[in-house]
Amino acid sequence: MRRLIITMLLVMSSMALFSQKSIKLPEPKKSGGMPLMETLANRSTSRAFSSRNISNQQLSNLLWAAFGVNRPDGKRTAPSSMNKQEIDIYVLLKNGVYRYDAATNELTLISGDDVRQYAGSQDFIKDAPVQIVLVADISKITNGSETEKLTTAYIDAGYVSQNIYLYCTSEGLATGARGYLDKVDLGPKLKLRPAQEIIIAHSVGYPK
């Protein structure tokens, strides 16, 4: 009977996780880590990942390092043209798709589906516990032609991508960026609007 009660509680807890609208992340740790020059010396792209999950604390630190708020005026850890902050971070986990809200340090639920396999075509995609997708809201960029706006978005996403690399290296995690992914299939899974453009994706996890 005791085992049955414990099993029921675990199931109920799992159901609650899937039904919640957001996940409040722990406060990111903004000190420590590997020295910058050592981090740069060790930075690399990984194509092999363990299926071992990273902790919520690591995920919070990662997202803050990537494009979190680092000043009282709402400016971020990565620059953006004219401070438009057009890059959104979508987090693909086993239990669903989330969008990172930097202002509240929360993950807002987009879908309860596991769509990590749509973040790339390589075999290692299925192994990494976290897929990060950088999406640009082109409507926030008000100057220039459509080509110029997209170029701006790619540059700004590059800053965020490098922050992901640096954090993962410092933390002993593996990551690899890729621009080649099926944006046509992935876009609806993320419930993107027409003005939103998928730029680049990162696999994140422990090295295999």
| Spatial order of strands in the largest sheet | 1-4-3-2-5-7-6
CATH topology: NADH Oxidase
Total of domains: 1
**Percentage beta strand:** 15-25%
C-alpha-based Rg, rounded: 17 Å
Q: Output the CATH homologous superfamily.
A: NADH Oxidase
User: Alpha-carbon distance between the termini?
Assistant: 39 Å
Q: Report the major sheet.
A: 7 strands, antiparallel
CATH C-level class is: Alpha Beta
Topology pattern, helix = H, strand = E: HEHHEEEEHEHE
The averaged pLDDT comes out at 91
Question: Structural class per helix/strand content?
Answer: alpha+beta
- The CATH architecture assignment turns out to be 3-Layer(aba) Sandwich
C-alpha geometry:
globular
Structure summary, number of beta strands: 7
What does the model show?
The chain has 208 residues and is an alpha+beta fold. Helix 2 crosses helix 4 and helix 3 packs across helix 4. Strand 2 and strand 3 form a beta hairpin. It contains 5 helices and 7 strands; from the N terminus they run αβααββββαβαβ.
Features:
alpha+beta, 5 helices, 208 residues, seven-stranded antiparallel sheet, NADH Oxidase
Give me the secondary-structure topology.
Blueprint: H1 2-19, E1 22-24, H2 36-42, H3 56-67, E2 87-93, E3 96-101, E4 106-111, E5 130-137, H4 146-171, E6 174-178, H5 183-190, E7 196-205
Summarize the structure.
With 208 residues, the chain is of the alpha+beta class.
